[in-house]
Design goal:
- By secondary structure, the protein is of the alpha+beta class.
- It is built from nine helices and 18 strands.
- The strands form five sheets. A six-stranded mixed sheet has the order 4-3-2-1-5-6. Strands 7, 8, 9, 10 and 18 form a five-stranded mixed sheet that branches.
- α6 crosses α7 and α8 packs antiparallel against α9.
- The termini are far apart.
Length: 358
């Protein structure tokens, strides 16, 4: 178990947010607060009830008790009982934040059983629950960044031309594990026109000479995520390809340079977007500049227009501008950065220069 410190801090944050408690279901929130990741929790209700000034209680099926962590109080229920009625005995009227990962079945069941209780999503009510990383978490994030950098460096020595995107994606998955990832989260390989779809995935398309290839990949090291994107070209880039890559690389550096404590998330997005627009590519930058990362690949804070959340030391997120020319090619460059007391630290250091592959 992570210990009571994180749960205590979460309870204090709930008070500051005007909440009467937190309902933590299996997934990233429960793993973050307790270190517990039940394998079989699904349609059966399991929820950690955190109320300020009270001992946290984990409501769970009785047969799950053997694998649950020590150090918590438990309220067990058995098949044939109403688990929502059991959990409702711990709740009073008031406003509770429930994990975003909660099944709708459980959210509606709890709201129905707990008279006078209203529920809000965790990301709306307590968006910074996991956003500020401590020294141990930052160390894990740095190891994940180094592991994904080593993966890219190794990939550059492998052939691309004449092979399917799926084959390169398989290479990426194997290299991620070889370089220390305990699990692989995603391997995007978008060649030629497929690179113009930011979340293409990988297909049976055969990569050809002259293709630009968007490579976006990551996984988990010590429970914390990596996520990086590099764009390579099979052979020498054309002048148009090189210019697009240069504009994105420059914009990415501008975004990193804009990061410091107190800056609003949207101001980083604006700085990146202004550079791409000035180059004439504004209409081709079709997504936000970045997303937070930690025990999930995507979590707050989000680096996007409309987010006035000030950056704070310990926040980790991506800076990933891209331009996408429909039917032709795309370019994206992504690194994870950490906000420091005085500015920013890159957690990825693999080359961002345009690289030719075979």
């Amino acid at each position: 178990m992570r210990g009571v410190d994180r749960i205590s801090r979460a309870a204090a944050a709930a008070v500051a947010a005007g909440l009467d408690g937190l309902l933590i279901t299996p997934g990233p929130d429960l793993r973050y607060l307790t270190g517990y990741s039940p394998l079989s929790a699904a349609e059966r209700l399991m929820v950690l009830v955190v109320r300020p000034g009270e001992e946290p209680v984990l409501v769970l099926p009785a047969f799950e008790r053997g694998d649950a962590p020590d150090g918590l109080r438990y309220l067990e229920w058995s098949d044939g009982e109403d688990p929502y009625a059991r959990a409702a005995t711990l709740l009073s009227a008031g406003r509770y934040a429930i994990s975003d990962a909660a099944w709708a079945l459980h959210a509606f069941g709890l709201a129905r059983a707990a008279a006078g209780a209203t529920l809000a999503s965790m990301s709306d009510a307590l968006p910074l629950l996991r956003a500020i990383k401590d020294a141990d978490e930052l160390g894990r994030m740095a190891r994940a960044g180094a592991a994904v950098d080593a993966t890219f460096d190794a990939l550059l020595g492998l052939p691309f031309a004449g092979r399917r995107e799926l084959d390169v994606a398989a290479d990426l998955a194997a290299l991620l594990r070889e370089h220390g990832h305990e699990s692989v989260d995603f391997t995007i390989v978008g060649s030629g026109p497929n690179g113009a779809n930011p979340h293409h995935g990988a297909s049976a398309r055969v990569i050809a000479p002259g293709d630009m290839v968007v490579l976006d990949f990551g996984g988990f090291v010590d429970g914390y995520g990596s996520d990086t994107t590099r764009t390579v070209v099979v052979g020498e880039p054309t002048a148009e390809q090189r210019r697009a890559h240069d504009v994105v690389r420059e914009a990415q550096q501008i975004g990193v340079d804009a990061v410091r404590p107190g800056v609003a998330c949207q101001d980083v997005d604006r700085a990146v977007r202004e550079h791409i627009a000035a180059a004439g590519f504004g209409e081709y930058f079709t997504h936000r500049t970045g997303h937070g990362i930690g025990v999930e690949t995507h979590e707050p804070p989000y680096i996007v227009e409309g987010s006035t959340q000030p950056l704070a030391p310990g926040m980790c997120f991506s800076i990933e501008p891209g331009v996408y020319f429909p039917g032709r090619f795309g370019v994206r460059i992504e690194d994870i950065v950490a906000v420091t007391e005085s500015g920013v630290r890159r957690l990825n250091e693999s080359t961002r220069e345009p690289r030719a592959v075979g």
